[in-house]
UniProtKB/TrEMBL annotation:
<dbReference type="InterPro" id="IPR025714">
    <property type="entry name" value="Methyltranfer_dom"/>
</dbReference>
<dbReference type="Pfam" id="PF13679">
    <property type="entry name" value="Methyltransf_32"/>
</dbReference>
<dbReference type="InterPro" id="IPR052220">
    <property type="entry name" value="METTL25"/>
</dbReference>
<protein>
    <recommendedName>
        <fullName>Methyltransferase domain-containing protein</fullName>
    </recommendedName>
</protein>
<feature type="domain" description="Methyltransferase">
    <location>
        <begin position="136"/>
        <end position="293"/>
    </location>
</feature>
<dbReference type="InterPro" id="IPR029063">
    <property type="entry name" value="SAM-dependent_MTases_sf"/>
</dbReference>
């Protein structure tokens, strides 16, 4: 659903309420789980929370942090915790997947025949098309392309640039599946080369399996180009003009970004605002922790809106980082009874305690990522994790009674991490509402849709704006 400038006051009010809650619980959002034992975080939870949660089964914790409307809680919880949980459920942008319909208006436009899916009824062609595409990516491509087609017909704009196009799967779907004219911009040259190779396979598949001549479909254009986050957009506009062989005055195009990292999403929004040639934009963000702050960049990734800038609304790195995690998937783990998957948080926290006790200057050092399995011992984990730090842990301390006591409290680490995850959707909501206000301040209509299944795609909300 789109909102216009008349709704700005409501968006501001909602954002303000979200921010006040995040500010109140910043001590929790800003706490790294790896520091759990170093800073004794369990003791910093409100006493009534500790008493209520310490003996809870983990499936109960899963119900507590779940924001699904159908989830009910029968346990008696502190009023402050219940109030927090209800506030989050009420204020967050709902994460439940919404259905995208290509309505009748799309089918009545001048290019209603663009969406010709006959070629996808051919199994061989489909198999070639989805080559090297994982389930998550396939899910995202199918729905993102559907949304792009809907906006293309709505705005009568059939040229699209796909920023961060990789090996071109989304570009290919928009082009071969929906008949749109697409230019993919990709920073890594070898990915652009792979995209062109896959295009050749598509051309071959069309001839072989679909009895189609390739000229009926316009294959995407792949350009090796890094979109700089401090770009004013002129280089992008010039590249698009050359790719489509259309002069700037006659050019109209939409922007699509499937998980543009960090500041790139903010850069694309600035391009949409600045250039009349850009008729619509679809972006699904990721890597919020990489958003630059006003002190480090003239074109900060957050905040974007004048409202948030004037209010001096800040979000810490830790809070933006936890907002990128998968709440729904973690709830499933809490409900799975395979708790060995969750003990890795405690392993990392105990390891941090051992390191800091012996080498305080190595606090927050980057350790190796260790593939966790059910029978992985803490001792084995430690020596794999620190192999590149140039230190050697005392085996007696690793296997001491004190260390064993920490490890027995692994469920406390899980509970603490779960509480952080429960608040995280409000952080993402703040970032989304800031972007909405940024667009509304230029008097363009925009909206957020939870387009993907959050179980498959944790960052499942698409920000859309049109002119």
């Amino acid at each position: 659903m789109f909102v216009n400038k008349e709704k700005s006051a409501e968006v501001q009010k909602l954002l303000d309420m979200c921010y006040k809650i995040c500010e109140k619980y910043s001590w929790l959002l800003d706490a790294y789980v790896s520091d759990f034992f170093v800073h004794e975080y369990w003791d910093k939870l409100p006493e009534c929370w500790r008493k209520s949660l310490k003996d809870c089964k983990l499936e109960t914790i899963g119900r507590i942090i779940s924001l699904d409307e159908s989830t009910e809680i029968s346990e008696v919880l502190p009023l402050s915790m219940l109030a927090l949980r209800q506030s989050i459920k009420y204020l967050q942008i709902p994460r439940k997947q919404q259905t995208i319909n290509i309505d009748e208006t799309c089918q009545k436009g001048p290019n209603h025949s663009l969406c010709d899916k006959n070629i996808f009824s051919v199994n061989h062609f489909r198999n070639v098309f989805w080559k090297r595409v994982k389930l998550k990516k396939k899910h995202e491509i199918e729905l993102m392309s559907k949304m792009c087609y809907k906006l293309a017909t709505k705005t009568n704009c059939y040229y699209i640039i796909d920023v961060g196009s990789g090996i071109g799967h989304l570009s290919r779907m928009l082009s071969y599946g929906y008949g749109l004219k697409v230019c993919g911009l990709e920073a890594q040259e070898y990915l652009t080369e792979e995209a062109n190779k896959l295009d050749q396979e598509m051309e071959h598949a069309l001839k072989k399996y679909c009895n189609e001549t390739p000229t009926k479909y316009v294959k995407p254009i792949h350009v090796n180009m890094r979109v700089k986050t401090n770009s004013n957009g002129e280089d992008i506009l010039k590249t698009v003009e050359e790719a489509f062989s259309i002069k700037s005055d006659d050019l109209q195009f939409g922007i699509v970004g499937l998980h543009p990292c960090g500041d790139l999403g903010a850069t694309l929004l600035r391009l949409f605002i600045k250039y009349p040639q850009v008729k619509f934009i679809n972006i699904v963000g990721c890597c919020y922790m990489k958003l630059s702050e006003p002190t480090s960049s003239l074109n900060a990734g957050y905040p974007l809106s004048s409202f948030c800038k004037q209010k001096n609304y800040k979000l810490s790195y830790a809070s933006r980082e936890v907002a990128c995690h998968a709440l729904e998937a973690y709830v499933d783990k809490l409900n799975s009874n395979e708790y060995w998957q969750l003990k890795i948080h405690a392993y990392r926290a105990v390891l941090e305690k051992l390191i800091v006790d012996e080498w305080p200057d190595l606090f927050h050092s980057q350790v190796n990522s260790v593939k966790y399995h059910e029978n992985l011992s803490f001792s084995e984990y430690c020596f794999k994790a620190i192999s590149k730090l140039g230190i050697k842990l005392n085996k007696a301390k690793v296997e001491s009674n004190e260390t064993e006591k920490y490890l027995k409290d692994w469920n406390y680490v899980v509970i603490f991490y779960s509480l952080r995850l429960m608040i995280a959707p409000l952080v993402e909501t703040i970032i989304m509402l800031d972007r909405i206000l940024f667009i509304l301040e230029s008097d363009y209509a925009c909206g957020v849709t939870s387009i993907f299944d959050p179980q498959l795609s944790p960052r499942n909300q698409i920000l859309t704006a049109i002119k």
